Amino acid sequence: MLEEVLHWLDLRPGQTVVDLTVGLAGHGREIVQRIGPHGTYVGLEWDPETMALARQALQDAPNVNLFSENMVELPSVLATLGLQHVDGVLLDAGPNLWQLTAPHRSLAHDSDVGLDMRMSPATQTVTAAQVVAEATEAELRQILRVTLTESEARRIARAIVRAREREPIRTTRQLAEIILAATPPPAKYTGRMPMPALLAFRIHVNAEIDNLRDGIRAAASALRPGSGRLVVLTFHSAEFRVCRQVMKELARGCICPPRMVQCACGRKPRLRLLTSRPLAPDEDSLRRSGPQCRSCRLHAAQAV
Length: 304
Ligand SMILES: C[S@@+](CC[C@H](N)C(=O)[O-])C[C@H]1O[C@@H](n2cnc3c(N)ncnc32)[C@H](O)[C@@H]1O
Fold this sequence. Notes:
By secondary structure, the chain is α/β, with parallel strands linked by helices.
C-alpha cells in the first residue's frame, strides 16, 4: 500500500521521518525522495541480514541514518541523534518477503534448515526449536491461541507433544507436517499465506505483539505535537487487534474505569485517529503489491 502510506504520512521536503521497520527499503526509498536532500530519514531494522540489503538500497540517499535495532529502542535512537520530535513514523509490521522465502531463514513452511525463526539471532536467545521442545502442552496451547481457535490449539499442541516424544522436531517442514496431520481436511493449509500455527510460533519467538504495542507507544511519544503523522500497517488479526487497541488508548488518553467520577490517571490524548476504520488495499494496490497483501490494513493517526 505504498501510495496510501505516502498519502497518510503527508510528507514534505525537509521533514524528519522514522521508518521503524526498514525491511528492503521499498517505502524507505520513496520517503527519502519525498523529504529531499534537506530531510532526515531514520531507519530501524531488527534483522541484521535485512539491514545489509537495506543499506545497499539506500546507499546513494542523503541524510540516511540506519540502526540495526528493535523498534522499541526508538527513544534511545532519537537520543543518539539529538532528535526530540519527528514529523512522521511508519511501522510496517511482520517479516519482509525475502525473510519469508529465504531457505536459510526457517520461516517458510517447507524449510529444511534448523527451526529458528528469530529476527535477530545475536540479540535473542530462544529459538522456535527450543520452544517446541521445551514448552509444556498448556504453554504450547497458549502460544497457538494467538492465531488459532481453542480447539485447533488444543489439537495441535497435543500432536506436537506426541511427536516430540518420538523424535526431536528439528525443522519447520517437520513441524508443518505435524500441524497438517493434526488439522481436519476442511481447514487444510492452502500454501498461500503463512500457516497460522507456524505464524503463532514466529509471533511468540519474536515477541511480535509486545514489540508492536511498545513500538506504537514509542512512535506516538516521538511525534511532533499538533502535526506528526503515524502510519501502521498490520497483516493479520493478532497485529490488527493490538494496533487498534493501542491507538484507541492513545487517542482516548484517560484509562480510568468508567465508574470513576474524576480522572485519577492524568493521561492526556496523544493521537487523533485519521482513519476511523482501518483501510484495506484496493484492487490497484493488490495488482501492484501482490495477493499476499490482501490482509494488509492501514491505520493512520496524527499527534495532538
Ligand atoms: C514488512 S517488512 C517492512 C517492509 C518495508 N516497509 C519495505 O517497504 O521494504 C517488516 C520489517 O520489519 C523488521 N522487523 C520485525 N520486527 C521488528 C522489530 N521489532 N523492530 C525493528 N524491525 C523489525 C523485519 O525484519 C522486516 O524486515
